[in-house]
Amino acid sequence: MKTQTENHFINRSGWLRAAVLGANDGILSTTSLAIGIAAASDGRDPIVLAALAGVVAGALSMAAGEYVSVSSQSDIETSDLEREKKELAEMPESELAELTGIYVARGLAPDLAHEVALQLTAHNALEAHARDELGINEITQAKPFQAAMASALAFIAGGVLPLLVAILAPVRYMVVLQYCFAIVFLAISGALAAGAGGSNKVKSILRICLWGTIAMCASALVGYLFNVQTT
After folding, report:
1. What's the pLDDT tens digit per position in 152-177?
2. Biggest CA-to-CA distance, the chain
3. Is the per-residue pLDDT at 139 higher than 70?
4. Which of 25, 35, 63, 131 gives a 20 to 30 Å CA spacing to 184?
5. Rounded alpha-carbon distances, angstroms, from residue 206 to 31, 178, 181, 186
6. What value does the mean pLDDT take over residues 53-69?
7. How many whole angstroms separate alpha carbon 90 and alpha carbon 135?
8. What is the DSSP letter of 137?
9. What value, to the nearest 5°, has the Cα angle with vertex 215 and ends 72 and 150?
């Protein structure tokens, strides 16, 4: 009989976090930039140029930042694994006792915990310690390039939407339309992210729309009061 493989949402955590962050940031930062410039300008060209520059610079910044951040996590994981490998070679009995203690703490009887530790050590000692002592496994292990690409592409996808609004919307109503479309875009992004991650869609939508509104209102206020845009 065939066994059905369960589809767990944690399998998507590596790229989903970066993609959600990138898309939402692309929508929000580009819209905020366009709103700030629109509030301080009567022409379309500065708004479009600002939005376009925001998409390009933001995507590159997100990719670089995500790559550096996740690479740092990967370096820490690699360092911990090397240290664990050394300890397994130099102190196998101590490491076996440590693994046994972990299983006892999780609810196994001491004898059973020792037997489980023995068998897992015989199968793959480093894998057992990485998973159960360090919390590192194949699913959650840091993948810098994947995170960077997901973040950059998602930022571009999100940032293109307010850029199109900047190109097509009447300049007279640019601030209002940028805000309205951004809320719709953010709601869609929040719903898609919640669906992909298996979380509550309403909560996700409300959260991103609330904080998005605060950010865009602040940008508009800066544009109206000072005729400048800050990021």
Report:
1. 888 999 999 999 999 999 998 998 99
2. 77
3. no
4. 63
5. 18, 18, 15, 10
6. 89
7. 22
8. -
9. 35
